[in-house]
Each structure stands twice: as C-alpha cells, then as structure tokens.
Design a protein that fits this description.
The chain is mostly beta strands. Helix content is about 10%, strand content about 40%. The protein has one domain: SH3 type barrels (Roll).
C-alpha cells in the first residue's frame, strides 16, 4: 500500500457526506461544539461566507459577522468533528470568488443581494 492510499483511507473516515453546497456570499449558520469544563454544547455562528479555500478534507470557509459593531471573522474546517451542522440560511448573489471588500464596508453597505435560482 502506498502512502497516498493510507492517507486517503484515513481521510475517508472523517469526510462528511451530508453537507449542503456552500457558495461564497451565502449566509450560513454553523453549529460549533464548545466545551466548557466538562459540559459540551452547540453554539450557532451565523454570518456571510466571504471565502472558500482548498478542497476535499482540508476545505475551509471564512464566515464574517458583525458583533456589537465590530467585524468578526472565523475560519471553519468544514469536515472537522467540532462542526456539528451547517445550514444555509439564504443564498447570496455575488460576482467574485473572495468578498474581502466587505471588510472595508460598514452598516447597510455590507448587505449581499439574495439569489433565488438555487434552492436551499
């Protein structure tokens, strides 16, 4: 067995099958498992996907939201066991692959148009 085959077999164990198709510009709600002491709970993190990177097991999405007037960005490894679920709240209509320009915008200027042709 080659090293690549071993790596693929290990990756296949952690690969999540039931994931929605996520596009840049979508508003998503990511369920993150948080551990506080000996208790665990799922905390939702809702925001706009401004970037997608890599592919396969290493695929990540960068989600941006405004919290108390401050922009907060978080990078999520999609196939991580810490991510319990991902739900697409609304589809966004954008014309570029990375939405880093939203970092410079404030208030209503950060809104992304809604796309209706793809189902949720």
């Amino acid at each position: 067995m080659h090293a690549e085959e071993i790596i693929r077999s290990i990756e296949a164990e952690h690969f999540k099958e039931k994931l929605p198709t996520i596009y840049v510009g979508d508003t998503v709600r990511v369920g993150v498992q948080i551990r506080e002491g000996n208790k665990e709970r799922t905390q939702p993190y809702e925001g706009t996907v401004i970037a997608k990177r890599h592919g396969g097991i290493n695929e990540t999405i960068t989600v941006r939201r405004i919290f108390q007037g401050v922009g907060v960005e978080r990078v999520f490894l999609i196939h991580s066991p810490r991510i319990t679920n991902i739900k697409v709240v609304r589809r966004g209509k954008v014309r570029r692959a990375k939405l880093y320009y939203l970092r410079d915008r404030v208030g209503k200027a950060t809104r992304v148009k809604q796309r209706f042709d793809r189902e949720l």
